[in-house]
Amino acid sequence: MSEKKIKKITELTCSEVQNLINSVDIVLFDIDGALLVNSLPLPGSTELIAKLRKLNKDIRFVTNNTLYSIETIKDNLRFFNAEHKDIFTPIPSLLEYIKLTNYTQDIYVIGSSTVTNILRQNGLKIIEFKDIHPSLHIEETGVALKELLLKALEIFQVADALLRNIKSIKLISGISDDMTPLARNLMVIGTKYYLDGLERWSGMKAIPMAKPAHELGDILKSVLNITDSQRVLMVGDNVETDIGFGVNSGFKTFLVLTGATTKEQVEIWKYSESLKPDYLAQDLEDLYEKIKEM
Ligand SMILES: [Mg+2]
């Protein structure tokens, strides 16, 4: 198989980049590391989004973050005038899945209070570890979460017991990071570790609801009436989640080097060949510079 050539935005002419923009109707943005860093807009991001909107592009935001409510995410995106309907997370994708499969039984949730609250508001019957062990009540702040992590094994043992003992049970996953930032300077073992364990112990495969799974892309396509996936551009900083999501959903893909991926990682490509993005830029300013005269 011949190697795919990643197109660098700075090496393309303005008209080539403008043709790219003309070839899409919808632009999906990852948030952290692509648009924002430490809650502040990255270079060129606000100008780019304003420009794309002027060009009648439909701008949406796709994040795996389920720690924050949509209201909080919307507030974090205030620089970009995001509205509630513009934000997609694994939670709406899970709700859609539950609706499609007519699921009405109890759901054991290992997740943030944002997740459990939204599921409850949608009339679903939720069981959490603290319902089984009422003495466990820990506020979801950075330091207290550290205590919660010490309980993680017990929390996952309950899940394992359920998976082994209930016939026709399903395992559904959200974000599956290897490491997760809980707070500034507090990186902890991510959900991938526990999910891998659950899959191995139970012999079940999780149904994923977060990027890079195409399931989230399917929801987007149905909500946004997307008939031609190639008229969608996915922009993000993470090869495995953002570019993987774009590839799995059939979208055009655009990698920026303002977050999870370094220039060296692109130069010495260590991911699978299929995860190579169509386009690459150091930051969104590079893209804005090429289209600002459009
Ligand atoms: Mg990101």
TrEMBL record:
Domain of life: Eukaryota
Xref: Gene3D superfamilies: HAD superfamily/HAD-like
InterPro entries: HAD-like_sf, HAD-SF_hydro_IIA, HAD_sf
Alphabetized PANTHER family for the sequence: 4-NITROPHENYLPHOSPHATASE-RELATED, RE04130P-RELATED
Protein name (Swiss-Prot/TrEMBL): Uncharacterized protein
Protein source organism: Hypothenemus hampei
Lineage: Eukaryota, Metazoa, Ecdysozoa, Arthropoda, Hexapoda
